[in-house]
């Protein structure tokens, strides 16, 4: 028989050791979902969802769990939606007999899901989320499972928040790098025009802007073509 406390400690440690530089945000979701499924007794599938003002993103360990999560977040109702919006875990002892979300319960029962447990992920003001496990066995998640899921959610929330921050930072750095590259080529193009037309930097930029508008091309593309032409590499 598995030593559950020891297994839980290993899971907490593994969540904390996820290397964001070796995976993407989706990979972190997948890892947290799989560790949750493996650690919660009775869990047949697990899902991780984060929700912002405009989008929601879910990764689950099983196709039926993925569909059930997406169904909830499209319609804004169901156990994981309620858990993400509140402070308390949401337990579904038997989906076939649960009156709270009749349509979702019907979908769950049709997929063979009888029990579910959703715990909110304490992220930050603009993002909420939920950690959810599903089981084919009624009443699969009770006292100890709920407490363990809450502890897992605390560790998972830190990992997911850090992964989201890392992903956002990497994207920002890439945007800044591209912006610097675009600025550099525009400055080069301005220098070429200034040399050819004996004009000021502002006048050179105005010429580039007019060409961009007249040709319906992006300013950086006009600048790149001019620099390439000057270097003898016509585009």
Question: Topology, please?
Answer:
Layout: H1 4-16, H2 25-39, E1 45-51, E2 56-60, H3 63-75, H4 79-85, E3 90-92, H5 102-110, E4 115-120, E5 128-135, H6 143-197, H7 201-215, H8 219-230
Antiparallel strand pairs: 1-2, 1-5, 3-4, 4-5
Helix pairs in contact: 1-2, 1-6, 2-6, 6-7, 6-8, 7-8
Let me know the largest β-sheet: 5 strands, antiparallel
Helix/strand class: alpha+beta
Query: What percent of residues are in strands?
Result: 5-15%
Q: Can you tell me the CATH class of the largest domain? A: Alpha Beta
Indicate the low-confidence ranges by residue numbers: none
Helix content: 55-70%
CATH architectural designation of the largest domain: 2-Layer Sandwich
Name the descriptors:
235 residues; alpha+beta; five-stranded antiparallel beta sheet; Beta-Lactamase; 8 helices; 5 strands; Arc Repressor Mutant, subunit A; elongated
Written overview of the protein:
This protein has a five-stranded antiparallel beta sheet with strand order 2-1-5-4-3. With 235 residues, it is an alpha+beta fold. The protein has two domains: 4-169, Beta-Lactamase; 178-230, Arc Repressor Mutant, subunit A (Orthogonal Bundle), CATH 1.10.10.10. The protein is elongated. The protein has helices at 4-16, 25-39, 63-75, 79-85, 102-110, 143-197, 201-215, 219-230, and strands spanning 45-51, 56-60, 90-92, 115-120, 128-135. The mean pLDDT is 79.
Give a quick precis of the structure:
The protein is of the alpha+beta class. 59% of the residues lie in helices and 12% in strands.
